[in-house]
What we know:
Layout: H1 3-13, H2 20-35, H3 40-45, H4 64-69, H5 71-77, E1 79-81, E2 95-97, H6 109-118, H7 123-141, H8 157-163
Parallel strand pairs: 1-2
Amino acid sequence: MSFPDLDLVLRSLCGNILDRSAIRTLAVVKHVASTFELPIDVACSLVAPMNTLGIGDSEAPADLFNRTFNGRFAEIDGTVILAPAFVPPAYRQYRRLTCAGDVLAPRNKEYRQRVARALGLSETGLGEIVQRFRQKYRALRGTAPSTRTSSACRSCRCCTASAGWPAPLSSPRPTSSECSTR
């Protein structure tokens, strides 16, 4: 495993701690990646937030988020979806696509279409997935987290519990006393 891949796994799944638990996590990620012939960053994204770090040496960003949602779509459409605040030089001339509130709202149609195309789905298919996730959360928690607004950091146990988001997979995570949003 390369150092950038090791860094990604430790950062996204192990709380930046290399211990016995992290070694097991590394083995699982490596197994999933080799079994399904996936890059490490894609294997990690199955259980952790998608990587948005790593511009690379070429003009186009090399991180998984940009490879998935921008890349050729940005060149064709002249639009870009930004995950971090940083705008890569290759995307500075493009119009930004944003999503405010409900992804299924009419005002977010262009954004929704881009996400659907990037994921190889129809717009209807993406809508069905969103609706099914909402139904599942309503059944489990009483309301759907995708319809809430929260300033929670979504990384510590106190924020994920209070916002209704699933608990973080990696540990250790900050406690409420260490949380940057409290």
